[in-house]
Amino acid sequence: MAGNAGVAQGTNPTTAVVVAKGTVTVVAFPLNYWEYSGLQLYFKSKKDNSIDNTASKKYKQAATAPHDYVVQLQKDLIALNYLPAKDDYRDGYFGPETQRAVARFQRHAARPYRMPQPDIGTGECFAGGETGVCDFATAQEIRKWISKNWTLPLARFPLRAISVVGVVTGGKLREDAAAAWGEIVTLAQAQGATLEGPYGDTTRVLQRMTKSGTSRYSFHYCGRAVDINQALGGGNGQRYFIVKEASGQQMYWRIYCKTANSSGAHIKALTKGQVKYYSFFNGKDIDIPAGNYVDLTTLIESSGKFERIKAQSGWEKDYNKTEWWHFQYIVAKQATFLDEMELIGYSEQQLRIAGWSNDAMLDHPPG
Ligand SMILES: [Zn+2]
To answer: Rounded to the nearest whole angstrom, what is the distance from the C-alpha of residue 323 to the centroid of ligand 1?
Structure first.
């Protein structure tokens, strides 16, 4: 429908006050939703939700919200890319889709990311909580975004090639993770260790995997994960010695990288057998050769930006489940898979086409 300027006041029973026969005066509600300090636009059930004038006429249900408040809100959510630009989404009926859009907006507004950039300070972020209810504070925030031409942040951290001078790497990560990983690779090189590629996996093509045992929400999709070079973990020229490190029922790994250097923050001199490393080929612990080693796991994790992960259950029988090579970027992990993917530039529409076809998948935690 076209604009709301022409909506006749008094047609909405929730706003009309009859003062004399044939005379109707509206005093209760301002014309625009963002001007009403008592605002509560919401969905609880089909019998208890916000229905404005437009939806009241269209669906022949009693209005429960003033004027065209819900249409106005929906148009704003469409302008901000939180609802698709279709008539179904600007019908004045506050349903589950509008609720989800409001919740996503509230969650995103609580972050410092703003597109177009620049980001804002954390103290300036929306603090109203993720309720899915459009209250006055949420309405003010929405109008702030409209006035500043901010929209749903897409590609705030686009994928970038991992690039380190003089080192073969390969692969892509989101740009902040690629930079952070590059610094770690450089640090390892400086101690005579290596994190050179080619990497087993970094980011993945946008296609939801259906094979069992592979995460449909992996941080690899999100441009946050790197699988270091497995070839360095055995054979001739072995550099990595991978040590079991149990934590309760979980198995983690610690990677010692052989180095010719004798001093450095992460270098340890080990005598033969001082540490047992695990041979995946033989399925047993073996004495580590005497020499100098960089504790690569500590070097990586002391950046505060990447973490190792535990082995998947059944790793003893399936090398692919050991995950000793997998490290992932931990800075500002997002609440949902969709939130992660939007930050590297994939839209909700693209994800739906690629196989994450419903809200439960899109709103699943990443990782
Ligand atoms: Zn991995």
So the answer is: 7
Distance 55 CA to ligand 1 centre (A): 49
Average confidence score pLDDT of the chain = 92
Q: Which long-range contacts (CB under 8 A, 24 or more apart) does 14-21 make?
A: 14/63, 14/64, 14/65, 14/66, 15/66, 15/67
pLDDT tens digits, residue range 116-148? 999 999 999 999 999 999 999 999 999 999 999
Per-residue pLDDT at 213 exceeds 80: no
How far, in Å, from the CA of 226 to the mean position of ligand 1?
6
d(CA 117, CA 342): 15
Beta-carbon contacts of 35 under 8 Å, excluding residues fewer than 6 positions away, are: none
Centroid of ligand 1 to alpha carbon of 201 (angstroms): 6
C-alpha 259 – ligand 1 centre gap (Å) = 25
Give the separation between CA 71 and CA 90, rounded to whole angstroms: 5
pTM, rounded to two decimals: 0.89
CA of 85 to the centre of ligand 1 (A): 37
pLDDT beyond 50 at 36: yes
Q: What is the 325 CA–ligand 1 centroid distance (Å)?
A: 7
What is the amino acid identity at position 186?
T
